[in-house]
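Progress narrative, work stream C.
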Amino acid sequence: MSKPAMIHVTYIETTPEKLWEALTSAAFTEQYWFGRRIESDWTIGSPVRFFDSADDSLTDSGEVLVYDEPKTLAYTFKNETQTDAPGRVTFTIEPAGKNVVKLQVVHDGITEDTVEGWRNGWAPILANLKTYLETSRTLEITFS
């Protein structure tokens, strides 16, 4: 039996370098991650912290596992309000044409009963990332 994972693949009209910047720059992440700012020095073993721009509270945290610019980024990921063990998020970037990249996001190390919740959480973030890189605007998503 395979272990549970959330897997998302999308194609984005951008360069690997610009996508890498979008994943690792605090100012960039705040634009498409619905006000969350991701901070790290991106050295393997260093902390990764997610802050809510509304009150600067720590919402999620992790530790850098892989930093292979601009191909693979991986870190552990734990929501600060949950008691589950941290999962792992891996971003894989591959050229897929002229100014097109394939982005695969795998969130594993999670439980079967949380896969759908993670999928629902990642979907708008990744759609917003794609839209922002391609149009320089964000989506106006209403969460219910």
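Work stream C, second folded protein:
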Amino acid sequence: MLGEYRIEGRRASEIAASVERAVGAGELQPGEVLPPLRELAVYLEVNPNTVAAAYRTLRDRGVIETAGRRGSRVRPRPASTPREALRVEVPPGVRDTSGGNPDPSLLPPLERALAHAAARSAQRPVLYGTPPVDDDLASLARAAFDDDGVPAGPVAVTSGALDAIERVLAAHLRPGDTVAVEDPGWGSLLDLIPALGLRPAPVGVDDEGPLPESLARALQDGARAVVVTDRAQNPTGAAVSRTRATELRTLLAAHPETLLIEDDHGHGIVDLPLHPLSGVTDHWVLVRSTAKAYGPDLRLAVLTGDALTIDRVRGRQGLGPGWVSHLLQDTVVHLWRTTAVHPEAVAAAYGRRRDGLIRALEERGVRARGRSGMNVWVPVPDETGAVARLLHSGWAVAPGARFRMASPPGIRITVSALSDDDITPVADAVAAATGVGEMRRYE
């Protein structure tokens, strides 16, 4: 049964574990069809209800998907095979533009901020029973939200944007619910959703954000939650425009029961204004991470939202880690008040590299996208071939499969490590790797 692999078990939990083990080990491949329920029940000599329960568990965990009469099959990208596994190994001598990391030279120095936080801790130690959110942090975060037109709401603090999104989804959804997500979109989020037992529904994206008609289809098909990246969308650099925000708010207002999650991780590194969608649905949050502006190791995000959602997030957090370290919270407060690197300068630095690369690619006949942030998305006809040829040319880029569900292939180039002198060589290499340079030679 299923070639060399034999599904085993007498209980639903044993059968599910057997299949999940095989998927994780690569013995069951993405897309492989599982035996019909009754056929497997006869083979294992168990009740069909037992197999049905096992398949339900696997579906809720994001390992398999069920397509009615076409049966059940291993998901194209099951939760047990994370997208990070699709990264390119960068050999010595090859320049790495695949990581999605900020430019270290654009991060503020942390010595004074950490020393300030340590001194404050010595004067006022944080003990059990201390409120989880520092008053100064909450006040500064709320003021920034107010300045950007984000609706009023309490503030919570989590260990990064993905931690916040996971907690919000868990606060409202149950396994089997559908979440509308951008496609292409953030690979970690595309992994998280099936890992929570939820079903992702792809929503197309252009330079102005999610496409209204695509989101409308997902909502009509029963999506209970929507995740939108406001600015510096990963991997395309999209930023929600004022016009697009109006369209999306109107659409979401017709589905007030939908949970809306806005990811504004680009706060602090982009110069485009925020056009929030929040406030038109009953439950909503807007999340801001410090990762891109202050460094990925400063694991902190602030979020605001409707009172019920924030209360649920805080309550569940209190039963686990309890709170995000006040040392980190005080560090961020100090950076917000005294940061040596101004957001406008950071945005300009990324914008100069990003726009320069897009212009150079366009001059070579290569279409590219990147309205904001630190990434450029290049559609390609042959993703695997383009990645391999670029690696051979001395440039490592991220394969688009890390970010895609149903959207066409592409590659992501992070401009953080590029200098002005790198723009031309990168553009030449991409044009050659995608076949544009070869075609132009024969024109």
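The longest strand covers residues 199-206. No further action is required on this item.
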